[in-house]
C-alpha cells in the first residue's frame, strides 16, 4: 500500500497496537459497524509497513475459503492457497472482518495460528504451514450483533487482545467528516449533532446508531450539491430503519438542526 490510509486516533490505540504487533499477539477490534475499525487496521498495517490481507467473513464461508482448496483446470488439479494461508506464508497482517458471521467450525482453523504454535495445518495437503515471523491475525467483532446463535466460542475469544471502539467523540467525528470529504466544519458539526440525536434512539426501536461512515456519505452527497435535508434523509435515516415512527422522529431531528 503506497498512500497512508488517513486515521484520526481516538486515544492511545496506535501505541497499544504497536506493542501488540511487536509481541505478535492476535488482535480483536470490537465496536459498532462503521466506527473506524477497518480504517484503524489499514492504517496500522501501513504504519508497520506490512501487507494487509482482508477477508469479509460471511455465514457461507467454509474453512477452505480461508485455507485454500484444490482446483481442477486443463492441467489437472492444483492447490490454491486461501487468504489466511497466503498471509501466514508471506508475513502479512490478515484481517478477518466481522468474523462472528463465519460458522464456528470455520473459525476454529485459526486456533493453531493464534497460540504459541503459530502454524496452520492444511489437512487436505497433509502440510503444516509455519507462520512467517511477521504474520499477525486481526479480527473485527460487533458486540451489538451478538446472540447465542452467533458468537465466538470462549476458546476463540481468549486467544486475542482486544480494542474497544465506539463512535468518535463529537469534535473528533466532525474533524473526520471534514478530512474525509472536504466539507466545512460547521456543516460537519451539524451532521454530528444529528447523528447524536439518532444514536440516542438506539434501544428504542433502533438496533444500531448512525455510523461515522453514514455521516461521511451525507457529507459526500452535499458536496455533490444535494440539499442538506435530502442528503441526511438518504444517508442517515433511510438506510438504518424502515419503521415509519422512527423515520419521522429522525426526519424531525434533521429539520430541527
Ligand atoms: P468499520 O468499523 O465498520 O470497520 P470503517 O473503518 O470502514 O468502519 O469506517 C467507516 C468510515 O468512517 C471510513 O471509511 C472513514 O471514512 C470513516 N472513519 C471512521 N473513523 C475514522 C477515523 N478514526 N479516522 C478516519 N476515518 C474514520
Automatic annotation (TrEMBL):
Residues 26-160 form the ATPase dynein-related AAA domain. It holds the Pfam family AAA_5. Keywords: ATP-binding, Nucleotide-binding. The keyword Ribosomal protein does not apply. Gene3D superfamilies: P-loop containing nucleotide triphosphate hydrolases (3.40.50.300). SUPFAM superfamilies: P-loop containing nucleoside triphosphate hydrolases. The keyword Metal-binding does not apply. Residues 173-256 form the CbbQ/NirQ/NorQ C-terminal domain. Belongs to the CbbQ/NirQ/NorQ/GpvN family. This is CbbQ/NirQ/NorQ/GpvN family protein. It comes from Limnohabitans lacus.
Amino acid at each position: 500500500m503506497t498512500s497512508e490510509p488517513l486515521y484520526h486516533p481516538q486515544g492511545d490505540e496506535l501505541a497499544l497496537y504497536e506493542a501488540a504487533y511487536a509481541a505478535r499477539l492476535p488482535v480483536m477490534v470490537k465496536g459498532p459497524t462503521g466506527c473506524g475499525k477497518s480504517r484503524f487496521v489499514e492504517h496500522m498495517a501501513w504504519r508497520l509497513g506490512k501487507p494487509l490481507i482482508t477477508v469479509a467473513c460471511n455465514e457461507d464461508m467454509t474453512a477452505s475459503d480461508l485455507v485454500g482448496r484444490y482446483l481442477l483446470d486443463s492441467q489437472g488439479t492444483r492447490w490454491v492457497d486461501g487468504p489466511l494461508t497466503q498471509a501466514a506464508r508471506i508475513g502479512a497482517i490478515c484481517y478477518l472482518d466481522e468474523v462472528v458471521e463465519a460458522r464456528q467450525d470455520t473459525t476454529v482453523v485459526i486456533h493453531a495460528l493464534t497460540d504459541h504454535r503459530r502454524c496452520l495445518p492444511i489437512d487436505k495437503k497433509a502440510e503444516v504451514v509455519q507462520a512467517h515471523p511477521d504474520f499477525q491475525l486481526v479480527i473485527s467483532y460487533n458486540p451489538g450483533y451478538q446472540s447465542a446463535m452467533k458468537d465466538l466460542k470462549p476458546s476463540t475469544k481468549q486467544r486475542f487482545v482486544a480494542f474497544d471502539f465506539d463512535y468518535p467523540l463529537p469534535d473528533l467525528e466532525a474533524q473526520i467528516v471534514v478530512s474525509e470529504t472536504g466539507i466545512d466544519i460547521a456543516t460537519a458539526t451539524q451532521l454530528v449533532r444529528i447523528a447524536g440525536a439518532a444514536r440516542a434512539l438506539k434501544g428504542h426501536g433502533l438496533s444500531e446508531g448512525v455510523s461515522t461512515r453514514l455521516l461521511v456519505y451525507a457529507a459526500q452527497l452535499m458536496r455533490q450539491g444535494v440539499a442538506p435535508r435530502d442528503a441526511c434523509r438518504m444517508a442517515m435515516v433511510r438506510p438504518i430503519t424502515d419503521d415509519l415512527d422512527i423515520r419521522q422522529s429522525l426526519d424531525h431531528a434533521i429539520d430541527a438542526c
